[in-house]
């Protein structure tokens, strides 16, 4: 049945959706009123792996964290973290399948017994059960897509796709000052505050973009190999990447460091994944709900 909300004028609809941090893409079948095809959670997962030409990853963390594989899917939400607020928003959207990039239960393996008798885990499990929502982590396979959906999503949202070559974290953009680069990233990625090591007046052109938490060793390795003007990361251990950048500058290097924040640095990738997935799931609504920056700045 076609709902009246589907006929909201495009500009007005996009404006309202953007202001709410929710981005929805509708398949042509939905607009035409055709009967949606039924999918189970496992069928969606299998389709993603097939369409992405993704080989099985041994011991992957990309497993179902809540719900069952044979659950019929009524709608899909993509997000960084399946937070309590994202779960509630999914329920309001009548979407019972959340595809989350990061853990749901606060540890890499999503082991609910990681800390025994964890009351927050129990409450979250109860919330998921209340709304009958399945959660699948999409991390290892997400980064295995060509292009890597997370980095590509960041590059796309920053407006730099024309400079992105060969899946490399390094790309060269028109020169600007570090201060202007910070403003550009804050504006394009919707980030309130950034942390920076460097001279805001220095000229920057070559960047190395590593969203999320690649780890200090990998970040420093990329910096040594690529020699970027700016290393842009989601997060880095302060005693590794940050001290490397600080000492580097004290010892003659000009490389600056920008720390975006883990959640906000990878969210654009899960937003982009909606565009990748929606045409492949005939008739199902796929919506990105941002989990957002967990911090408040005081």
| Share of residues in helices | 25-40%
In total, the number of strands is 11
On the 0 to 100 scale, the average pLDDT is 91
Q: What strand order characterises the main sheet? A: 1-11-3-4-5-2
> What is the radius of gyration?
20 Å
Q: What can be said about the biggest beta sheet? A: 6 strands, mixed
Order of helices and strands: HEHHEEHEHEHHEHEEHEHEHE
Point out poorly predicted stretches: 1-20, 23-32
Structural class: alpha/beta
What percent strand?
15-25%
Distance between the termini: 48 Å
Number of helices, counting only DSSP H or I runs of 4 residues or more:
11
Shape: globular
Structure description:
- Helices cover 39% and strands 17% of the residues.
- Strands 1-11-3-4-5-2 form a six-stranded mixed beta sheet, with helices on both faces.
- It contains eleven helices and eleven strands.
- By secondary structure, the chain is of the alpha/beta class.
- Helix 5 links the parallel strand 4 and strand 5.
Topology:
Elements: H1 10-19, E1 22-25, H2 28-32, H3 41-51, E2 64-66, E3 76-79, H4 84-92, E4 97-100, H5 119-131, E5 134-137, H6 140-144, H7 149-158, E6 170-177, H8 178-189, E7 195-197, E8 203-210, H9 216-226, E9 230-233, H10 238-250, E10 256-259, H11 262-277, E11 286-289
Parallel strand pairs: 3-4, 3-11, 4-5, 8-9, 9-10
Antiparallel strand pairs: 1-11, 2-5, 6-8, 7-10
